Amino acid sequence: MAEPVLEARGLTKVYTMGEVEVRALAGVDFFLYPAELVVLLGASGSGKSTLLNVLGGLDTPTTGRVTYRDHVLSEADEGELTRYRREHVGFVFQFYNLVPSLTARENVQLVTDIAEDPMRAEDALALVGLGDRVDHFPAQLSGGEQQRVAIARAIAKRPDVLLCDEPTGALDCATGQLVLSVLAKVNEELGTTTAVITHNVPIAAMADRVVVLSNGLVKSDTRNEARRRPEDISW
Q1: Separation of alpha carbons 221 and 106, rounded Å
Q2: Residue 1 pLDDT grade (very low, low, confident, very high; cuts 50, 70, 90)
């Protein structure tokens, strides 16, 4: 077994809201290995997004240890976390967060202009099937196309890790399948370690491994015997 790209041990995260403490993570152990695609399942409030935010350096744990290769993220300061996010992690969220006044190419260039060894924006857009839409503005694109621009922007800096939080949550079933096919293609062709949060159980069939969270804990961690393509999944 290869060494994990990301490793979390004993993660807890407690949010204080007035006099109330909310425990989002309650002692999570989690690993991401090179080039695998992991789907994280769980009900709303199970801790999925909090875990992804901690792994991506967007949040810090209350207790526990997070390492990216030989870097201890749980001991990093904000400057170190910013460099980690910029150099090693791509994010895809439910909402596309595109700049309305910029074309698809220009939205992707927001990342390529600050990355050390980026793809050309045109190449990233071609990889997600938008080679003919590079000069279109977000308002001229469908929801699925906008999400694919967001994926192109995330992968254009050639991240080691791609973290996706409900990337199909705002899309209809057919468009969601197309977006998932793009994520699977990125994982397979670029070897990008990918984690996808969803509450849609059928999506688990496309994963190398399925992790189920419940009440801030890992309930199960199962390797798929036969990973399936999104277009072959029954919805």
Answers
A1: 39
A2: low
